[in-house]
Q: What sequence folds into this?
C-alpha cells in the first residue's frame, strides 16, 4: 500500500468530521443547554468525551489553543451542562447537519452503510496509548444509524491521527502557535484571522512566532517556508503517517482505496453544500 494512502483517506474523513465545528445546528443544540459563546461551544463538543476536565487538560489535548482562552470557558462550561448532555446534543446536531448537507438519499444509501462499515473496521486497529482524545472518544458507543456511525468512526480516526501528530510536533520543537504558523505557511492551514478568532492568539503573538521560526531557518523574510521549513513540514507529516499507519494497514489497500472513494463522494457533497467558510484556508 502506498505510504500516503492512509493520509489521503484520513483527509476526506477528517473533513466530514469537521463539518460540525461550523454547524449552526450544533450551535443551536448547545444554546438550548445554555452554552452560547462560540469558544465555549467548541471546547464543549470536542472535550466532552474527556469528562468534566479542567482547562489544563483541554489546553494540553488541543495543543494549539491559547491557555487563557480555554480557561475563560473551562471548567465553567461543565457547570452549565454536563459532558453527557453535551455529547447527546452534539450527536443531535451532527445528525441534523449531515442530513442537511448530504441529503436524505445519500444518508440512507448503501454507499453510506458501506463507508461506515469500512471506517469502523479501520478503527479496530487504533490504539489508546498516549492518545487521550482518541481514547476518550473510543469509550463512546457507536451510533446505530450508518451516517452517524460513519461520522463516529471518522472522529475516532481523526483524533487517533491528531494525537499522534501532536507527539510529532512536540518532538520537532514546535509549540502550538509555531505549528499553526508553519502549517499556514504551506497554504493548507487555517488563515490567521481564523486562528485569532478561534484559538485566542493575536497578531503580536503571531508575529513573535514568525520571528522565532525565522531564527530557526524555517521561514524566510517574507514569511514563506524555506527549504528547511518545507523539509520540516514534510518530515512531520511522514512521521505522523508512520504513527497512524495501523488502522489503514488493518483495512488493507483495497479497503483504503474504497473508503477513500466513498469518503470523497460524501465529503464532496458536504463541501458543495457550503459546509465550511470560503475563506477558512490560505496563507493570508
A:
Amino acid at each position: 500500500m502506498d505510504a500516503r494512502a492512509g493520509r489521503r483517506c484520513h483527509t476526506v474523513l477528517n473533513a466530514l468530521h469537521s463539518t460540525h465545528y461550523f454547524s449552526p445546528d450544533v450551535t443551536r443544540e448547545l444554546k438550548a443547554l445554555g452554552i452560547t459563546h462560540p469558544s465555549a461551544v467548541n471546547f464543549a463538543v470536542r472535550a466532552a468525551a474527556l469528562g468534566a476536565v479542567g482547562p489544563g487538560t483541554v489546553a494540553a489535548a488541543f495543543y494549539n489553543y491559547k491557555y487563557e482562552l480555554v480557561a475563560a470557558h473551562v471548567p465553567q462550561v461543565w457547570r452549565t451542562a454536563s459532558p453527557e448532555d453535551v455529547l447527546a446534543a452534539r450527536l443531535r446536531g451532527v445528525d441534523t447537519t449531515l442530513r442537511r448537507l448530504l441529503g436524505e438519499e445519500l444518508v440512507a444509501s448503501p454507499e453510506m452503510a458501506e463507508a461506515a462499515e469500512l471506517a469502523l473496521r479501520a478503527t479496530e486497529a487504533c490504539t489508546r496509548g498516549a492518545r487521550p482524545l482518541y481514547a476518550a472518544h473510543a469509550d463512546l458507543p457507536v451510533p446505530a444509524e450508518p451516517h452517524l456511525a460513519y461520522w463516529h468512526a471518522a472522529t475516532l480516526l481523526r483524533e487517533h491521527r491528531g494525537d499522534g501528530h501532536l507527539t510529532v510536533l512536540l518532538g520537532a520543537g514546535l509549540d502550538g502557535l509555531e505549528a499553526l504558523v508553519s502549517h499556514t505557511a504551506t497554504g493548507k492551514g487555517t488563515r490567521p484571522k481564523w486562528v485569532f478568532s478561534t484559538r485566542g492568539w493575536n497578531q503580536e503573538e503571531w508575529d513573535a512566532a514568525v520571528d522565532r521560526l525565522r531564527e530557526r531557518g524555517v521561514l524566510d523574510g517574507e514569511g514563506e517556508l524555506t527549504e528547511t521549513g518545507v523539509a520540516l513540514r514534510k518530515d512531520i507529516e511522514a512521521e505522523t503517517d508512520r504513527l497512524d499507519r495501523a488502522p489503514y494497514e488493518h483495512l488493507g489497500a483495497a479497503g483504503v482505496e474504497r473508503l477513500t472513494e466513498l469518503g470523497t463522494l460524501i465529503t464532496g457533497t458536504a463541501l458543495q453544500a457550503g459546509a465550511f467558510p470560503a475563506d477558512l484556508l490560505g496563507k493570508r
In short: The chain has 17 helices and no strands. The two ends are 36 Å apart (CA to CA). The chain has a mean pLDDT of 97. Residues 5-272 form one domain.
